[in-house]
Design a protein that fits this description.
With 235 residues, the protein is an alpha/beta fold. It is globular and about 50 Å long.
């Protein structure tokens, strides 16, 4: 395996599948099956998942809601997704733990770094919910923060496109894909990989990011075995 410990970042929208909102049982089952393939090979896997399929803080602001209140609602949405993913993984006989940055002791453990790392060492998948526990921070920031805290080798950002392009490939048919790109080039070219806070934190800690298509079967396994899938961002 190229990577021993990875953090997988999934957007909430990824769980919608072909639906307009909510959680598509078929899509989440597919993700669980993909995750099982790498966990069965001994890879230690943690996951951060967004909540955009249920609620976004900025969405609430656009409707006149207080930003802090909206962000807390978004954090709760990520916990809902974490529990759904936990259920799908356990249906595949994968041991999991959900850890939340906000205290919801009846459904999730509090985030404790040493405990999270111990779970990973025992082969359990750890799903981090609740973002960072603070408003004004995205789940991208939470993903980078948790990856650094657990000493992950890489962040794998699963999206619906197969990497980073010169422009949006869904809008620009002439867009070309980068196989590898540096952090500095991403910034100078104004490419959107993660929000600036998350991206800078990853750059400062020399934590590589691989952006890939999570919806293509087998891609996750190909990455952890060293195949050049998606786009790798590093120094």
């Amino acid at each position: 395996m190229k990577y021993k410990r990875i953090l997988l970042k999934l957007s909430g929208e990824a769980l919608m599948g072909e639906q307009q909102y909510g959680i598509d049982p078929k899509r989440i089952k597919e993700y669980a099956e993909e995750i099982k393939t790498v966990v069965d090979k001994g890879v230690e896997l943690a996951i951060v998942i967004g909540g955009g399929n249920i609620f976004r803080g900025l969405q609430g602001v656009g409707q006149g809601m207080d930003r802090v209140q909206g962000d807390h609602m978004g954090m709760l949405a990520t916990v809902i997704n974490a529990l759904a993913l936990q259920s799908a993984l356990e249906a595949e006989n994968i041991q999991t733990r959900v850890q939340s940055a906000i205290k919801i002791n009846e459904v999730a453990e509090p985030f404790i770094r040493r405990r999270a790392m111990r779970h990973l060492e025992k082969g359990r998948v750890v799903i981090f919910g609740g973002g960072t526990g603070n408003p004004y921070f995205t789940t991208d920031s939470a993903a980078v923060l948790r990856a650094i805290e657990i000493d992950a080798d890489v962040i794998l950002k699963g999206t619906r496109v197969d990497g980073i392009y010169t422009s949006d490939p869904e809008k620009d048919k002439t867009a070309t894909k980068y196989e590898n790109i540096t952090f500095n080039d991403v910034l100078s070219k104004g490419l959107k990989v993660m929000d600036t806070t998350a991206f800078t934190l990853s750059q400062e800690n020399e934590l590589p990011i691989v952006v890939f298509d999570m919806n293509t079967r087998g891609n996750l396994m190909k990455i952890v075995t060293g195949e050049n899938i998606g786009t790798t961002v590093n120094n």
